Amino acid sequence: MTQQVTKGIKISVETHFEGVYFKEYQIRYAFGYRITIENQSNDAVQLTSRFWKIKDALNKTEIVKGEGVIGKKPILNPGETHSYQSGCMLTAPFGAMKGHYNMVNFTSARKFKVQIPSFKLSAPFALN
Fold this sequence. Notes:
Layout: E1 2-6, E2 9-23, E3 26-39, E4 45-56, E5 61-67, E6 75-76, E7 81-90, E8 94-105, E9 111-122
Antiparallel strand pairs: 1-2, 2-3, 3-7, 4-5, 4-6, 4-8, 8-9
Domain ApaG: 3-128
Protein name: Co2+/Mg2+ efflux protein ApaG
Pfam families: DUF525
């Protein structure tokens, strides 16, 4: 598990390999991840958007950004958590992801970024 705390918001990431697929005349490697966002601060916050940089071992980079996570913009009071699962497809059996969440602090009305720590994606059959 990979974890990081930014401005009182703890991000935890767990990953798993889902399988090999043939898509658009190419072999693709599917990975899943579970993210847990924990508000360790003293203020209520809301996640408004996300930014991901996904890179595979063949140096292909994909940028993903959008509103919320899995169609939601969760509000977290102090001590609360929000978890969700998602995934990505790579053209290589190895890769990594990192990014950030844009959030709003309800007490100060300030917007801030919470870093998502870099985490590795690797197919178990490709490890030596």
